[in-house]
Design the sequence.
């Protein structure tokens, strides 16, 4: 019985290591990905700046909710105007929903009048899995010291209804406002909602 218990514990530890999740208050996992212009970006490049990571899939109705209403673009502009680095990440694998070429991604950015700092590609799912990103959108906020201070949904209305944007409590906006004023983030985690990320495997 003792041997079986130790085997189960070992299996859990190994599994936990293989699928380690980011932890609030701890350094955010490093990530490196290439943008639509072929330029490589690493999280460490932005040390000293607040960083927002936004996982996206343009075909997802939950993503459309925030882009069709202009909600995501407004938040991007507010953030980047304050010097925040906003990285939109596409982890959809080739051949799966949400996958786009660089040209298609740029066209979407222009068509939707989006304003991220860069759109990054993660076709192997390396960055997404390092962050435990599960949905589109799935949001993360990292402070200038590289510490993860928020992860979860964009707001408290987990629906695809555009009518629910107005009056929602926007957790990302709250986190960015708190960081600007030197205060603690009022809510550091929430349940992410949206479409599942279409990983390669």
Sequence:
């Amino acid at each position: 019985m003792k041997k079986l218990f130790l085997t189960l514990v070992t299996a859990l530890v190994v599994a936990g290591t293989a699928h380690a999740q980011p932890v609030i208050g701890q350094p955010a996992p490093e990530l490196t990905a290439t943008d639509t212009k072929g330029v490589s970006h690493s999280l460490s490049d932005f040390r000293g700046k607040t960083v927002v990571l936004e996982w996206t899939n343009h075909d997802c109705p939950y993503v459309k909710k925030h882009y069709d209403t202009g909600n995501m673009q407004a938040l991007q502009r507010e953030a980047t105007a304050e010097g925040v680095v906003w990285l939109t990440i596409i982890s959809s694998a080739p051949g799966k929903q949400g996958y786009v070429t660089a040209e298609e991604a740029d066209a979407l950015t222009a068509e939707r009048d989006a304003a991220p700092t860069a759109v990054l590609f993660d076709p192997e799912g390396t960055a997404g899995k390092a962050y435990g990103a599960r949905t589109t959108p799935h949001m993360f906020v990292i402070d200038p010291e590289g510490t993860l201070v928020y992860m979860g949904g964009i707001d408290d209305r987990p629906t695809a209804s555009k009518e629910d944007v107005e009056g929602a409590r926007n957790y990302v906006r709250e986190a960015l406002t708190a960081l600007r004023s030197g205060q603690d983030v009022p809510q550091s985690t929430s349940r992410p909602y949206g479409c599942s990320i279409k990983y390669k495997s």
